[in-house]
Amino acid sequence: AITAGVFCACFFDRDMVDRETVKKLPLMQVDAGPTDGEDWARRLTEELTALIAYQKINMDSDNDWFTIEPNATGTRWVGRCWFFHGHNRFEFTFQFDIPALYPRSPPEIELPELEGLTSKMYRGGKICIDIHFQPLWQRNAPRFGIVHALSLALGPWLATEVPELFSKGKIQPTSGGAGAS
Known about the structure:
Blueprint: H1 19-24, H2 38-60, E1 66-70, E2 76-85, E3 88-97, E4 121-122, E5 126-127, H3 133-140, H4 146-167
Antiparallel strand pairs: 1-2, 2-3, 4-5
């Protein structure tokens, strides 16, 4: 493991994103998806290298907040993410599949434990990213990768939603559990 039919009122406060960290994230060079054979293997190597670099940046700044690992083909990713609010830690499982049109389409990150708890989520626990992150991804595809989806979509989503869900009593701090009540 490597240590946001229905209107969705999404968030994206650019001030919440650490711009200096984002500037340090490597951009992908290989334009390939899961059906592209050897090119996908090269892209996957880039993705893993970028994730390792991001984790090092986070650990060096005492700000690590997720673990993640792919399946053998790199098409399904599962991890744990955590967020601190006040003195409380909230931890959740997240997952996503690499879409058929990747890297032109971003992965749809799911937090199944939080499904139905916020309007900023779609069925299946997929976080809402369409208003702010989706256009950013489109402008930067195919250079953006998984690391960008985590840092520019999942991270800000957690920073916005976890405090609100906690204040409404919909989630409780993690104490050996998943964080959802």
